[in-house]
């Protein structure tokens, strides 16, 4: 089942990255009329969530995690945080994208080495299908696709063409 969860996580990331192609830094922080969010927040949130669901929940906090996912970044993009349109109050697009890439790469290093028994351990919400660590991994892919949909909608509101 771990291989299925990893394939789903990677598939969701491919969709997200395709939606980010061709966007300018200005596009990342634009908040179309009526929108409570922007693309930069969506990307930062996905990085934070992948760290939480795929690394922290699987093996707890590690000594290097503060460099991987700094506390200020985690707070800025966690569930319930409010997207800030002022670019000066946010990390740069390059920093957010680098964070997203670095965390995903770490997930691809660590998850394949997880013992199967770890996946059966219980976890709290959010999860999908089963209240286990495997359920958290499965939720990670679904969560990313949900936010990819939001990125896709923001793209369209910014006048960008749909992704084919």
Helix-strand blueprint:
Elements: H1 2-20, H2 25-29, H3 39-59, H4 65-68, H5 71-77, H6 93-110, H7 116-119, H8 133-157
Organism: Pirellula staleyi (strain ATCC 27377 / DSM 6068 / ICPB 4128)
Protein name: DinB-like domain-containing protein
InterPro entries: DinB-like, DinB/YfiT-like
Number of strands: 0
CATH homologous superfamily - what is it?
Answer: dinb family like domain
Beta content: under 5%
- What is the total number of structural domains? 1
Q: What sequence of helices (H) and strands (E) makes up the elements?
A: HHHHHHHH
Look up the CATH topology: Four Helix Bundle (Hemerythrin (Met), subunit A)
* Main beta-sheet annotation: none
Spatial separation of the terminal alpha carbons: 30 Å
Radius of gyration: 16 Å
Classify the secondary structure makeup into a structural class.
Answer: mainly alpha
CATH architecture: Up-down Bundle
Judging from the principal axes of the Cα atoms, what is the shape? globular
Number of helices: 8
Mean pLDDT, to the nearest integer, reads 95
Organism: Pirellula staleyi (strain ATCC 27377 / DSM 6068 / ICPB 4128) (Pirella staleyi)
InterPro entries: DinB-like (IPR024775), DinB/YfiT-like (IPR034660)
Domain DinB-like: 12-151
Protein name: DinB-like domain-containing protein
């Amino acid at each position: 089942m771990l291989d299925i969860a990893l394939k789903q996580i990677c598939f969701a990331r491919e969709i997200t990255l395709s939606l980010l192609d061709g966007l300018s830094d200005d596009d990342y922080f634009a908040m179309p009329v009526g929108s409570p969010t922007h693309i930069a927040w969506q990307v930062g949130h996905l990085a934070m969530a992948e760290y939480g669901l795929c690394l922290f929940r699987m093996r707890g906090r590690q000594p290097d995690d503060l460099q991987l996912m700094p506390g200020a970044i985690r707070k800025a993009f966690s569930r319930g945080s409010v997207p800030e349109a002022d670019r000066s109050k946010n990390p740069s697009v390059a920093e957010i994208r680098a964070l997203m890439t670095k965390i995903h790469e770490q997930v691809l290093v660590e998850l394949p080495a997880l013992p199967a028994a770890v996946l059966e351990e219980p976890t709290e919400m959010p999860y999908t299908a089963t209240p286990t660590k495997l359920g958290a991994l499965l939720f990670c892919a679904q969560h990313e696709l949900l936010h990819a949909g939001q990125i896709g909608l923001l793209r369209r509101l910014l006048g960008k063409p749909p992704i084919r």
